[in-house]
Amino acid sequence: MKRGKLIVVSAPSGCGKGTILSEILKNPKYYYSVSATTRQPRKGEKDGVHYRFLQKETFENLIQEDAFLEYASYCDNYYGTLLAPIEEHLSAGDNVILEIEVKGAEQIRKKRPDATLIFIQPPSIEVLRQRLEKRGTETQEVIDKRIAQAEEEMTHWNEYDYCIVNDVLSEAVEDFKAVARAVELKVNQE
Amino acid sequence: MKRGKLIVVSAPSGCGKGTILSEILKNPKYYYSVSATTRQPRKGEKDGVHYRFLQKETFENLIQEDAFLEYASYCDNYYGTLLAPIEEHLSAGDNVILEIEVKGAEQIRKKRPDATLIFIQPPSIEVLRQRLEKRGTETQEVIDKRIAQAEEEMTHWNEYDYCIVNDVLSEAVEDFKAVARAVELKVNQE
Question: What is the number of structural domains in chain A?
Fold first, then answer.
């Protein structure tokens, strides 16, 4: 069995990353790695689908056991990526997609030279702002905060292996598929 | 203007490389780099299409001027890749495809870290033999020689960035397109 590939994806909020990934994940060769967290499930969130919801003690024991590929804590809650399910799926030949923010991606780059890192960008900050405003689900203050965060995140694009600009969604999906396909053809070189 | 990418392709004879490339070259974004040679044109060969046919003296002057990306001599004839047309097309944003044997590819890897090297393989030596025999254009002796050469060349597959197995032609063409597309999305890292 040919080992699958580990694909790490980062994108500022509002880039259409979710839509792109849902297209990619229609292919059963891809497995989406679900993050673990100690925060409380929100309404509608399912364990094992949106997150693996863990008790704080369990999470801390797993940290001690070095069970995480990466983890971080935000607002008194832990968030992390468990290594075991990823390894299982890679061994089974699945390509594993890991969605993670810039700092987590940096941790993974160091630990896993076998990982392929993809950054998804909006065509411009202006377009991102228009998209967020068009959605109409956030206040202007939240939008401004997201834009500022996106601007910061976008300075890290060149730490990734591939950068996809999501201008036309169908093209961005094709870009992602091309990268995923190419990654499978990649010769591992030291 | 975004610079194009330099794509180097090697494949043992009989791998279907020509068929794959003719599919890729239907896209005008790709420019096929024509080799220069001092050998005599064969019947039907056109200057600038199959080769750039040069006088020996001209070729040697160009060597002195460092005008070649790589060159070699076989059977008293020179064969080489002129740098200028490649640079012109890369600057114009075209992706340049360079078809070359294993040793030439090795020279280019050293000189051009920006190049992407693709190796095309047959599914197996047995399949390659069957394909060559089915063609019926070569004697058994020539086939045996080609098989031996292919076996030697195939030991170098892991010196390339990507390896495409040409089992089903349409899949191999899609593989090539995916690699070419992915290469355009690649972030240049030192």
Answer: 1
Inspect the interface and report whether the beta carbons of B182 and A162 lie closer than 8 Å: yes
- Greatest Cα-to-Cα distance within chain B, rounded to the nearest angstrom: 51
A178–B185 C-beta distance less than 8 A: yes
Q: Does residue B190 lie in a domain region? A: no
Question: Across the interface, do A185 and B174 touch by the CB < 8 Å criterion?
Answer: no
Among B179, B162, B180, B7, CA closest to B96: B7
A136 vs chain B: nearest CA distance in angstroms? 31
Q: Using the beta-carbon criterion (under 8 Å), do A182 and B178 form an inter-chain contact?
A: yes
Interval A139-173: pLDDT, tens: 889 889 889 989 999 999 989 999 999 999 999 99
Q: Give me the CATH number covering residue A119.
A: 3.40.50.300
Could you tell me if residue B1 is inside a domain?
no
- Alpha helices in B102-186, H assignment, sequence order: 102-111, 125-135, 140-154, 169-185
Identify from B155, B185, B190 which residue to disrupt to test chain A contact, counting A C-beta atoms within 10 A and taking the largest count: B185
| ipTM (interface predicted TM) | 0.85
Domain of A52? Answer: 6-185
